[in-house]
Every structure is written in structure tokens, then in C-alpha cells.
């Protein structure tokens, strides 16, 4: 019965098969008679350390001391004391002999002497790391002596181990015992297993076994001596051979030397209390110790202290030992960010340290924290993540982006802060390639449709640029449905010149996705009108685009005549789409030339958003809601007042602006009805609406040139004629001077563009367009329809 209970309490009575850990390779050194081996858990494979102690006799003194060590290690808990996980005692029989082995399983550690050789630190970095480790061991010894009234009895280099995060931990509790200095009647040894301690590590009173003097001494007297031995072994680089070697102080730092001598005082009562050693500010205050100490008590710091600390941390980290930064500071930083104790600037430090890791280590140690931060409600954290998305975006898998990151990022598209909307938009250049087609078509494009009519012109411009860059990631059906409408109907008719320029560049960059029919009937007609745009940048890009698309058509024509089965897309000289179009401006607060590629400025602020509007040199008058929602040509922008919403007149933003309830089925603003089959009724209504619309007084007399600004009436007619291409896909236009010359037998009055459409007589009386021209002074003949413009034909 007793053996059964012993097996249950010990954890095993039948052998190692019941030990839930696998024993691996041993380390070359360990304290005392123990063996220190690597190990892993059988459940999850997590690393552990396994200490084993064997004896042939169950009453062996080493086994008794080992059991004492197991009991003490299991009951004493401190951040700088080795963490206990599991223990068991196994008895094996080999013929007539039996063998008893004690196993202790702890957190994964390695001997300090081996870790020092592995790190290979030199000079200042070595001293800083030793200061950090001594600070940790001193806290553990002080905890035992002053708080628990326990005596470790054998503090030395062998009794210290190091964790994977390079923390020093105290272990080897076989000799540990209570301090019974208050028991005056006791005369036996206070430390029953003091015989395990080497003579070179014993103070003089222990060598003499003067337990009366020991009991009269302070509780820290023995361990203070041991701490002095540890300091000597650290800085001498070798194990202590005999007590006399402690007099050699050549390698001891000068700032630590006075305390070292007090620790090794020959009088126990005069030895330095271990807690007092921690107050040595001159030695323990260095960059490494201060940094880790600050992060250990981060929750006690206010926001100003945190902000100052984390802004300096990237520069401080470069001066610290690289391996210590990656194994110690980086995990602390990731944990503080994950649990909310760190502020937004800490993310910059995290990413900088993460850049020193390999790709695989980055995915394991940094990326999980970043993914969790996307769910944060802290706007500063969100801004910092979006500003640095290019540093970690490539490391995230498509599934993580689609399921865990994008749903949180997408909330920024509708944020009240224009700066955050812009950052969210720009982040899609990195994240969009990892999104599924369902997310791209069902979610992202709807957000981009709304951003293309955003109140901020810079956002509208960059939305067009983003569409051009991610076009290759859309499926063919989505490209056919979205791109031309987004670039021509919205971008080319935007009141902001850089937005129009962006539309032209986006069309050129995605030219390989259009066939000849789309180029000839839907793209070129909309680009040609921009060759007379008031903005020189827009005109220059328009001419280049016209040449490019005409060359595509010419090449395909030559291939057809030569009998070659050429593709209907663009020529090989056309650049690829993704990543070739730069952002229109670096941020909402910077005034740059259109399409200048610049890095994102983190200092943008909401009050300066109006500067983007100042870049717009042209504005357009919003047409009457009852008449039409089409955008006018850009050739006469300066004659019109600025509209309340510059994008509410393009016919594609009706859903967002609640202008036209008839388009409620167009959920994303681009999913339009087929425009290859125009109907006459909408055209006639557009003409009639144009006749009703008042036109401002011209600022100078009409010229005789064939340019668009011949007269206000002619300009108004051309505006409406150009507008028809984007909305109802009318037949391709002819020359500028004679837009529609279809009937050769009719008199010269038929050159009017309205007459070519053969509209029926208007139902309402036309309003005068300008004084002195007389267009509306005489009623039209009942059967002449639109030919009443005859009276101004002489000015044409």
C-alpha cells in the first residue's frame, strides 16, 4: 500500500514511459551531481529542461538533498527563480541492484557558462549584460534572505541558468534551508546538506562549522559571500578554484569594486545586504538595464513617459547587443503592445527590431502581434499600422489578410478623418493582392466607388490611381464592368486637374485590358476632349494617351490586314499595371505636382485638408438636378462657379449623394447598364435640358476661330455633346469645327450638332443664352426642330 501511494505522489512507479516529456541531449555542465538535458513536451512539443539525479541507494544523501531541492523549488516562486513544471522519482531494477532517479522538469534554460560562450559579448556590451544578469540574481537572493528568511547556501556560477529570453534564473536549491537565528538552543548544522558545497565557495565560518556564529549573523551573510564568488567568476572568465583567488580584483569594474569587497568581508555582520547592492546606481544604471526595467514596470508609467520612451527606443536598440534586443526586448515590446500597455510609437520600434529577424522568425515573433493590433480601437495605433503596412504586408498570408486584417482595415474607408481614409486607401496597394475575388468585387470596389466621389480631391485622385494599380488582380468580368466607367465617367470629368490626369494615366496603364471597340467608342472620345483642357499637365497626358491608343488600333489593324490573329488588347510597349502609377500627392497636407510619387507623410492633420482643394485650378457649375446629372467639358471651367459637391454631377455618384433614385440598383456606382445600345429618348431629354440651362455671360467678344470658345452658345452645345459620350455612348464625334456634318444636301445650317440628332421640336420655350446674340429672340418654326440655331450660324 505504501509503495502504491509513493508511486502516485511521485508521478511514476513503473519507469520513464509515464513521464509526459521526452528527454533530449544533455548540456556539458550542471550544478553538483545533477544532469541537465534538453527536453520537449509529449503533448504540444514545447521545449523544457529536465534535471536528473541518480543514486543506487534510496537512503543516499545526494538523493535526500535532491528531494529537498524538488520540494523547495516547487514551493518558492519568483520571477528570477527557475520555474518548476513537473517532477517524478523512478526506481529501476537491474538484476540484484536497483537505481533511483529523480527528475525535475522546468522551463527551458541553459547553463550560464554555456550561454556566455555562445553570446561572445565583448567590452561594454558584455558589462551591460552582466549588470542586467547580476541585478536579476541579486533580486532573487534578496527575496530569499530578506522576505522568506531562507538561506540558499551555494550561490555561484553553476547555480545560475539562462532562459531563451536571456533572463538569469537562480536554481540548485538542494542546500536551501530556513534561517533559525532566533533559536539560541540549536547547536547542530543550520544547513543539513552544506557538505554539498565546495570549500572554495564557503565563508570562513562555514569552513569552521561555527554554527553559533552563523546563527548570530544576518540572514544574508552566507549568500552575500556566494554573490561575491559569482561576481568573481563572471569577470574572471573561469571557475573559482580556491578562496584566495577572490583577492584578485583585476577584472572587477571600478563602480562595482567597493560593493564586491563588502560582500566578501571577513566579518559576517559587516557583509553587505543583498538588497543594498541593488541600490548601486552607478553600476546598474546603463542603457540595457534601464530599458528593460522601464518595460517591466510599464503599467506604472504615465502616457507622457511612455511616449518619450518609445520614441527613443529605436535609436537605443541599435546601441544594445543585437541578440539581447531580439530575444529579450522584442518579446517584452510585443507583449506590451498586445495587452494595451504600450502606446502607438512602440509599433515603430517593434517593426524596426522585427526587421533584424529572419522572415520565418518575423512571422512567428512579430506578425501575430500585428494582426491582433488591427482590431484595436485606438486611432493612433490604426494610423501607425497603416503607415507601416509596407513593412509587414508581404509577410501576411492571403487568408490572414482576407479574414482577420481587411475587415478591420475597411472601417477606415468611412472614417470621419480624411487622413485616415487616405491611409486606408493607400494600404490597399499592399493588401489588395492578397484579397479573394469575393472580397475585391463584393466589398473593396464598393468602398472605392464611394471614395471616388469623396469630398477631398486628393482622395478622389488616389482612388483612381489605386484602381489602375490593382486592375490586374480583378477578374475579367469585373474589369470590363468597372474600369472604363470609373476612369472616364468619373475621373476624366472630375473638377480637380490631378484627378483628370490620374484618370488618363490609369487608362494608359490598363490599356491591355480593352479591346478595339472599347478604345474607339468609349475611351478615345473621352480623352480627346481633354486635349483642350485648361490645365497643361492634363493636356500633355491627353495627347500622349491619344497617341498610345491610336497606335494600338493601328497595330491591330495592320495585324488584321496581314492575316495575323492579333489579340485585341494593347501593344507590348504598354507598361504593366500594378505598382507603376505613383500616388498623386504624398498626403492631404502636401501640395505637389500631379502624380508625383512620394512617401506617406505621417504628420498630416485634418485642419490642413483644405490645401488639397487649393490645387484645383478649375471648377464646374453643378447642373440642375431636374435636368441632367452629366458633367460638362473641362474647356470652360473658369467661367463657372464652384459647386457644393464637385463630384455630384457626374451621374455615377447618385447612390452616394441621393441625387437620382432611379439608379438604386447600381450599388457600387460602376455597375452600369450596357451602353452599347443608346436610346434616343435620353438624348432628347439631355438636349432639351441643355436648352433650358442658363449660360453665363461671356467675358469677351466671340472670335472667328474654330476653337471651342467661339461663343457661349457654341461652348454650351459642345459641353452637352461631349457629355453624351460618358453617359449614353453616342456615336463617335467628328472634327471640332463641324461636329456632325451628315447631310450634304442640306443648307449650311445643318452643321449645327443638335440638328444631326434630329430632335423633335422642344416642348418649352428656350431661354436666351446671351445678350446681343438673339438666339432666343425669335420663336422656332413649328416644323424645323433644332434648326432654329440658324440665326447664329454666321458666327460659326
UniProtKB/TrEMBL annotation:
SMART domains: S_TKc. Residues 598-796 are annotated as: Disordered. Residues 685-709 have a biased composition (Polar residues). It comes from the Eukaryota. PROSITE patterns: HEAT_REPEAT, PROTEIN_KINASE_DOM. InterPro entries: ARM-like, ARM-type_fold, CIK-Related_Protein, HEAT_type_2, Kinase-like_dom_sf, Prot_kinase_dom. HEAT repeats lie at residues 523-561. Residues 660-670 have a biased composition (Basic and acidic residues). SUPFAM superfamilies: ARM repeat (SSF48371), Protein kinase-like (PK-like) (SSF56112). Coiled coil: none annotated. This is Protein kinase domain-containing protein.
Amino acid at each position: 500500500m505504501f509503495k502504491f501511494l509513493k508511486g502516485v505522489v511521485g508521478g511514476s512507479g513503473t519507469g520513464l514511459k509515464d513521464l509526459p516529456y521526452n528527454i533530449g541531449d544533455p548540456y556539458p555542465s550542471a550544478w553538483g551531481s545533477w544532469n541537465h538535458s534538453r527536453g520537449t513536451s509529449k503533448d504540444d512539443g514545447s521545449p523544457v529542461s529536465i534535471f536528473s539525479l541518480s543514486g543506487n541507494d534510496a537512503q543516499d544523501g545526494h538523493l535526500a538533498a535532491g528531494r529537498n531541492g524538488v520540494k523547495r523549488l516547487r514551493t518558492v516562486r519568483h520571477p528570477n527563480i527557475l520555474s518548476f513544471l513537473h517532477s517524478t522519482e523512478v526506481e529501476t531494477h537491474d538484476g540484484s541492484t536497483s537505481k533511483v532517479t529523480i527528475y525535475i522538469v522546468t522551463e527551458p534554460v541553459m547553463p550560464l557558462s554555456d550561454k556566455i560562450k555562445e553570446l561572445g559579448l565583448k567590452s561594454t556590451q558584455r558589462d551591460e549584460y552582466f549588470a542586467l544578469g547580476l541585478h536579476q540574481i541579486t533580486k532573487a537572493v534578496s527575496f530569499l534572505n530578506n522576505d522568506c528568511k531562507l538561506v540558499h547556501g551555494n550561490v555561484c556560477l553553476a547555480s545560475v541558468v539562462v532562459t531563451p529570453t536571456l533572463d538569469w534564473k537562480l536554481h540548485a536549491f538542494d542546500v536551501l534551508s530556513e534561517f533559525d537565528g532566533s533559536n539560541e538552543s540549536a547547536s547542530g548544522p543550520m544547513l543539513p546538506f552544506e557538505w554539498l558545497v565546495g570549500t572554495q565557495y564557503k565563508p570562513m565560518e562555514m569552513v569552521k562549522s561555527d554554527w553559533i556564529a552563523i546563527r548570530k549573523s544576518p540572514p544574508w551573510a552566507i549568500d552575500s559571500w556566494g554573490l561575491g564568488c559569482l561576481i568573481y567568476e563572471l569577470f574572471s572568465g573561469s571557475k573559482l578554484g580556491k578562496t584566495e583567488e577572490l583577492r584578485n580584483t583585476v577584472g572587477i569594474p571600478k563602480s562595482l569594486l567597493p560593493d564586491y569587497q563588502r560582500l566578501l568581508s571577513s566579518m559576517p555582520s559587516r557583509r553587505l545586504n543583498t538588497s543594498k547592492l541593488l541600490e548601486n546606481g552607478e553600476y546598474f544604471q546603463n542603457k540595457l538595464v534601464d530599458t528593460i526595467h522601464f518595460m517591466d514596470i510599464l503599467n506604472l508609467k504615465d502616457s507622457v513617459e511612455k511616449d518619450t520612451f518609445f520614441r527613443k527606443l529605436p535609436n537605443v536598440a541599435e546601441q544594445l547587443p543585437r541578440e539581447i534586443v531580439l530575444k529579450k526586448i522584442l518579446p517584452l515590446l510585443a507583449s506590451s503592445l498586445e495587452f494595451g500597455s504600450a502606446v502607438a510609437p512602440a509599433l515603430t520600434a517593434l517593426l524596426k527590431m522585427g526587421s533584424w529577424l529572419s522572415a520565418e522568425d518575423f512571422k512567428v515573433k512579430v506578425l501575430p502581434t500585428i494582426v491582433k493590433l488591427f482590431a484595436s480601437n485606438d486611432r493612433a495605433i490604426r494610423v501607425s499600422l497603416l503607415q507601416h503596412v509596407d513593412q509587414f504586408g508581404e509577410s501576411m498570408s492571403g487568408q490572414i489578410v482576407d479574414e482577420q486584417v481587411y475587415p478591420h482595415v475597411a472601417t477606415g474607408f468611412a472614417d470621419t478623418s480624411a487622413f485616415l481614409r487616405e491611409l486606408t486607401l493607400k494600404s490597399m496597394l499592399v493588401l489588395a493582392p492578397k484579397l479573394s475575388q469575393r472580397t475585391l468585387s463584393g466589398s473593396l470596389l464598393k468602398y472605392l466607388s464611394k471614395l471616388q466621389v469623396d469630398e477631398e480631391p486628393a482622395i478622389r485622385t488616389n482612388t483612381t490611381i489605386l484602381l489602375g494599380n490593382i486592375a490586374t488582380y480583378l477578374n475579367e468580368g469585373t474589369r470590363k464592368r468597372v474600369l472604363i466607367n470609373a476612369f472616364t465617367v468619373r475621373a476624366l470629368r472630375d473638377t480637380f486637374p490631378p484627378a483628370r490626369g490620374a484618370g488618363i494615366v490609369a487608362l494608359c496603364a490598363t490599356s491591355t485590358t480593352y479591346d478595339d471597340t472599347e478604345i474607339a467608342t468609349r475611351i478615345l472620345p473621352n480623352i480627346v476632349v481633354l486635349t483642350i483642357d485648361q490645365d497643361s499637365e492634363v493636356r500633355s497626358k491627353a495627347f500622349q494617351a491619344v497617341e498610345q491608343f491610336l497606335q494600338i488600333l493601328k497595330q491591330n489593324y495592320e495585324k488584321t490586314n496581314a492575316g495575323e490573329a492579333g489579340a485585341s488588347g494593347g501593344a507590348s510597349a504598354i507598361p504593366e499595371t500594378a505598382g507603376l502609377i505613383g500616388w498623386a500627392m504624398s498626403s492631404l497636407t502636401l501640395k505637389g505636382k500631379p502624380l508625383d510619387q512620394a512617401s506617406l507623410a505621417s504628420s498630416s492633420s485634418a485642419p490642413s485638408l483644405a490645401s488639397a482643394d487649393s490645387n484645383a485650378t478649375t471648377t464646374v457649375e453643378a447642373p440642375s438636378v431636374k435636368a441632367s446629372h452629366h458633367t460638362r467639358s473641362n474647356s470652360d471651367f473658369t467661367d463657372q462657379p464652384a459647386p457644393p459637391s464637385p463630384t455630384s454631377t457626374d451621374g455615377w455618384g447618385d447612390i452616394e449623394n441621393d441625387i437620382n433614385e432611379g439608379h438604386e440598383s447600381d450599388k457600387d456606382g460602376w455597375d452600369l447598364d450596357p451602353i452599347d445600345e443608346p436610346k434616343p429618348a435620353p438624348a432628347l431629354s439631355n438636349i432639351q435640358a441643355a436648352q433650358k440651362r442658363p449660360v453665363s455671360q461671356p467675358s469677351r467678344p466671340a472670335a472667328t476661330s474654330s476653337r471651342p470658345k467661339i461663343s457661349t452658345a457654341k461652348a454650351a452645345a459642345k459641353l452637352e455633346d461631349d457629355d453624351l459620350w460618358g453617359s449614353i455612348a453616342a456615336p463617335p464625334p467628328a472634327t471640332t469645327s463641324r461636329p456632325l456634318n451628315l447631310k450634304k444636301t442640306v443648307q449650311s445650317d445643318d452643321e449645327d450638332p443638335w440638328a444631326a440628332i434630329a430632335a423633335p421640336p422642344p416642348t418649352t420655350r428656350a431661354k436666351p443664352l446671351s445678350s446681343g446674340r438673339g438666339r432666343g429672340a425669335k420663336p422656332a418654326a413649328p416644323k424645323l426642330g433644332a434648326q432654329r440655331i440658324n440665326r447664329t450660324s454666321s458666327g460659326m
